Structures are given as structure tokens and as C-alpha cells.
């Protein structure tokens, strides 16, 4: 998919339209809905999630700041038809992180619809075509079968296991050359 990464909003975040999604900058009114998404049963099984509105607010502020400091970050993901907030997707590279990570969190009741793959594909394209990245990773627990499927659909392959923040994770990876070859095929 070749996307138009539109003009940045006031926070410096471009809005991206995919066939079913709007990837956009975060707004203060996203916080309560985002908290509902990440506190739903099973959402914290594989990735630590905020548990309070204050923690969700802090994570949202972090996402906004990430765009300001790195020029890329996580978008708020909404349904293009209904406008419903579905989660987040984009790029993450905090200080000391093992690389630029493509990541996604989609509300549980919308799993299995290909939305994480659609949003993730836009993030991968942004990473290579706009942010100028040469390598990407995605980090997940070995038991996170759904995210492993998404990562492999995006062209990432298992690279290694790594201890991060006191837990063992699987690191999937791809590079610009592999991604460009797959896109040309």
C-alpha cells in the first residue's frame, strides 16, 4: 500500500488514511476511551498497560512528546466510518530501547479483523519512506500469537530473544532492503 502522509497537525503528527482507518494525533478526549481499551480483559496479558486515567493520560502525553522529540511516534487509531477510537499504532523508540519498534494495540472486540496489520503496514511504510529508518523491530512475548502473526504479515521475522524491563521478549525484525524487495514483488 502506498499512502499519503498528510500535512502534520499542530503537534507535528501527520494524519494517515488507510482503507478502514484514520491514524491521527492524540487528543485529550481520547484518554477515557483509551483507558477502557487497555483495561479490557486480556489486554495486559502480553504488554504492560496503564491501569488508571492518570496513567493513560501520562502515556498519551508521552506519545505526543515522542512525535515532538523523534519526528515519529504512535498514532491514535480510529475507525474511518464510525470515528470510534480503536487503539494505537505506530513507531516507538524510547531512550535506551533496542531499536525503532513498530507496535500496535487494538481494542479487543475488534481483534481478528486485520486492523492491526493495516495500521502496522502504514507505520512500516512511514518508517522507511518518511522517517528514513533502515531497520525496524517489533517486540512481543512468545505467547502473543496474534501479534506474532501481525509482525510476520508485515514482513518481520524472529531475530532473537531479549530481556527488557525484567521480562523476556521475542524480537522480530526487518530492514529497508527486505521491505523494498517485498513491496516491489
Automatic annotation (TrEMBL):
It comes from the Bacteria. Keywords: Transferase. Gene3D superfamilies: 3.40.630.30. GO terms for molecular function: acyltransferase activity, transferring groups other than amino-acyl groups. The keyword Transferase applies. SUPFAM superfamilies: Acyl-CoA N-acyltransferases (Nat) (SSF55729). Residues 20-157 form the N-acetyltransferase domain. This is Acetyltransferase. It comes from Parafrankia soli.
Amino acid at each position: 500500500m502506498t499512502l499519503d502522509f498528510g500535512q502534520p497537525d499542530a503537534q507535528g503528527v501527520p494524519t494517515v488514511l488507510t482503507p478502514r482507518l484514520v491514524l491521527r494525533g492524540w487528543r485529550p478526549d481520547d484518554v477515557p476511551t483509551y483507558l477502557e481499551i487497555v483495561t479490557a480483559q486480556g489486554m495486559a496479558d502480553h504488554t504492560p498497560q496503564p491501569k488508571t486515567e492518570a496513567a493513560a493520560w501520562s502515556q498519551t502525553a508521552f506519545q505526543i512528546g515522542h512525535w515532538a522529540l523523534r519526528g515519529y511516534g504512535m498514532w491514535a487509531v480510529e475507525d474511518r466510518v464510525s470515528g470510534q477510537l480503536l487503539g494505537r499504532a505506530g513507531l516507538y523508540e524510547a531512550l535506551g530501547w533496542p531499536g525503532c519498534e513498530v507496535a500496535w494495540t487494538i481494542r479487543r472486540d475488534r481483534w481478528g479483523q486485520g486492523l492491526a496489520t493495516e495500521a502496522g503496514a502504514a507505520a512500516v511504510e512511514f518508517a522507511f519512506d518518511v522517517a528514513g529508518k533502515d531497520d525496524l523491530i517489533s517486540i512481543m512475548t512468545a505467547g502473543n500469537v496474534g501479534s506474532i502473526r501481525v509482525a510476520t504479515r508485515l514482513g518481520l521475522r524472529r531475530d532473537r530473544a531479549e530481556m527488557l524491563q525484567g521480562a523476556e521478549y521475542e524480537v522480530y525484525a526487518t530492514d529497508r532492503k527486505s521491505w523494498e524487495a517485498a513491496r516491489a514483488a
